[in-house]
Amino acid sequence: MALTSADLGDGTYRNPVLDADWSDPDLLCVGDDFYLTASSFGRVPGLPLLHSRDLVNWTLVGHALQLLEPARDFRKPRHDCGVWAPSLRHHDDRFWIFWGDPDHGIFQVNAPEIRGPWTRPHLVKEGKGLIDACPLWDEETGEAYLVHAWAKSRAGVKNRLTGHRMRPDGTGLLDEGKVIIDADRIPGWFTLEGPKAYRHDGWFWIFAPAGGVETGWQGAFRSRGFFGPYEERVVLEQGDTEVNGPHQGGWVRTRAGEDWFAHFQQRGPYGRVVHLQPMRWGDGGTSRSWGSPRSSEAESGGEAESGEGWPVIGDEGVPVAVHRKPRLPPQPPSVPATDDDFPGGRFGRQWQWTANPHDGWATQHSGDGLRLSCVRTVDAHDLRRLPNVLTQRLPGTPATVEVELRLDSEEPGARAGLAVLGDAFSWIGLQREADGSVRLVHRFAESVAEHERDAAHPREAPEGRARLWIESGAGARCRFSYDVGGGRQPSGQVFAATPWRWVGALLGLFALAPVGGGHAGAASFTQFRITSSFR
């Protein structure tokens, strides 16, 4: 059974609506269409672009970023660097995506259509620790603004949001910036990040999470002026649900006037899966204000000035598990693609390299099947260091992954396989021996290990072919198996997939050869499939 949609087919949906690592989602409504992007960190192409007509059924339609820049810094994997927490906007008949690279600064790309062509990355503000950038164009005044958070690992500070005036064309900032929300001055708040800025009902709004991705909450802030003072309110928290976090996301209003909020939940090796919450505007209630002489609830008299009110997300502030779908035209069930027959040697949009790619890693040809060059490398003992691993997301529910492999390279030591990659990794595949024979090998490395080692005894693969399987069960516990001509056989012990810090585990296809430079033949992959084991 193929991976299933969150659409339950009876007018309701089940969370998460995207059950894989679509980290730090932001979404947008343009006409009858909804678009979503997410963090891609050090993988290429980056900035995935998803499309939906009902906010529940999504397809992957492309990427906005073809190479990470500066290119020299992403020649090798930097798994948790690169693109952090992008913001997707539509302004002046163009699509815009802003993001923070914690080591370089704030970038943006833009395009006339969601499928492009997208501009090359433009550096809006250079600096260390500038993350989670979001632009805001005030259609009433013509002013443009930008808000961002801080990464303490690079800047030495966090828990605050900085605002800037921005050039209306998005090419640069007009001031040095001002701290518009300092959560150190809000009792109980810590690790404020991921801001998304909006203009609504006469207020400037900033939706931003705090408290950390594992245990935090979603906050909302409002002010009559972009630079403050802001009042705050907790608008979504875990409560008695199983949705830890819940963490940053974006608000969208449909053409029918319904409000919805998409956010992520951190799920260990599965990464950050995406939930969809109903949203409405409630009464003003009580709130506190930061940035004015009267900054506490007691000092400000308790109840704040209210317009349409505050956002009420989920079921009165806690996440929903199952809910009525948005009132939008019915859509066929869909999920982002996973399977691939590699027509003409081309791979689908779901695949990403672990660093900026080089010509020749994958070659096109007249038939079907992915032909990967066995790239010579001194890092053949550790897949985590290789830029030429083609990856896609590990499904968030139990699933079986399978692929057919043929090792064509005659180079001794050449190998190719199917992997689960994270801080630890395990792979199963084929290796050419010094005597010219081919063996089925299964190897792994723990998170602290610098070299892989055997997970099972090597077996002969007399025709240089193998069918490979990984069964991912509850908790991303993976069982490996193979068929080299005598039927399917289990291999090794259960391997528990791990994240790369906060990046979810990945499925990977690779081909390599030890030592030296250049290519040493190729390996071919066919009929890649992921089928659901979820019940």
UniProtKB/TrEMBL annotation:
State the superkingdom: Bacteria
Identify the stretch(es) annotated as Disordered: 282-343
Q: Which UniProt keywords apply?
A: Glycosidase, Hydrolase
Q: Which residues form the Beta-xylosidase C-terminal Concanavalin A-like domain?
A: 340-530
Is Nucleotide-binding one of the keywords? no
Which GO terms of the molecular function aspect are on file? hydrolase activity, hydrolyzing O-glycosyl compounds
Which GO biological process entries does UniProt record here?
A: carbohydrate metabolic process
Q: Which family does it belong to?
A: Belongs to the glycosyl hydrolase 43 family.
**What's this protein's name?**
Glycoside hydrolase
> Which species does this protein come from?
Streptomyces olivochromogenes
